[in-house]
Amino acid sequence: MPLNRELVAEKLGFTGVTENSLDTVSDRDYCIEFTSCFAVLQSHLSRMCEELVLWSTTEFGFVEMSEKWSTGSSIMPQKKNPDFAELIRGRTGKVYGDLINLLTMVKALPLAYDRDMQEDKEPLFDALDTVSRNLTVFTAMISSAKWNKERMALSCEGGFANATDVAEYLVRKGLPFRTSHGVAAKAVRMALDAGLTRIEDLSTEELKQCSPLIEDDIFTLLSPEACVENRKTTGAPSSQSTAAQLKILKKFCAKNRK
After folding, report:
1. Nearest-CA neighbor of 31 among 108, 119, 109, 158?
2. pLDDT above 70 coverage of the chain, percent
3. pLDDT (0 to 100) of residue 258
4. Could you give the C-alpha distances from 49 to 85, 90, 212, 219, 242, in angstroms and in order?
5. Which of 135, 169, 170, 244 would suit a FRET pair with 145, their CA atoms being 20 to 30 Å apart?
6. φ and ψ at 4, to 5 degrees?
7. 3-state SS of the chain?
8. Residue 183, Cβ neighbours under 10 Å: how many?
9. 64 DSSP β-pair partners
10. Gap between the Cα atoms of 99 and 32, Å rounded
């Protein structure tokens, strides 16, 4: 038959035609790839929801979820349960199951179309619907949350998270990192032995026992704010780098929303 597939594709608004007819009817790669993307997206939602669940506990107190996206306890009046975050996290297995469903469907199928392939619709549409609803709820949940910045800032104190900054301070003074790593560890041990929870609670003289290269200027680099702001490379957590990341993300979202 004198068919013109390219013309038909053009009239229907497609970008082109499939190159091999046997391959065209033999696979459901596009369904698997589509659902795989949803499974990856859902995994990220699940991990972020886990953070929200943890951060909303009394022990952390970093965030307070809106009552619209929380529920009360059936027995404890004071509780505010982050149920929507937990439900999003819980539905991750469902989306993973949709992907495994499709992968199993095409396992060991002979070439060309097989009736098994009609089973592709349910897992594909279920993954789409589940993740789409989860995204809607997650977006509203985040935008309505209240963040306890003071509590979060307080949590940065202690724990010796700035030990790496001590090592990097010495690297900038010419000490090899392997050696400076040991010096920082020694400073942490000295603070612990003295019953302290922060390196900066040690005096300059005490720190000099770890390395004579340490001077008073080290204390300007050890606050949580300084530790963050000193990291300015692409992708780093400083306010400058974070602003650049947000700008790129907003541009990406605007472009793909069209």
Report:
1. 119
2. 100
3. 65
4. 5, 10, 46, 36, 21
5. 244
6. -120, 90
7. CCCCHHHHHHHHCCCCCCCCHHHHHHCCHHHHHHHHHHHHHHHHHHHHHHHHHHHCCCCCCCEECCHHHCEECCCCCCCEECHHHHHHHHCHHHHHHHHHHHHHHHCCCCCCCCHHHHHHHHHHHHHHHHHHHHHHHHHHHHHCCEECHHHHHHHCCCCCCCHHHHHHHHHHCCCCHHHHHHHHHHHHHHHHHCCCCCHHHCCHHHHHCCCCCCCHHHHHHCCHHHHHHCCCCCCCCCHHHHHHHHHHHHHHHHHHHC
8. 20
9. 146
10. 7
Say what the pLDDT of residue 256 is. 87
Average pLDDT, the chain: 96
Asked if pLDDT for residue 257 goes beyond 90, the answer is no
pLDDT in tens, 183-227: 999 999 999 999 999 999 999 999 999 999 999 999 999 999 999
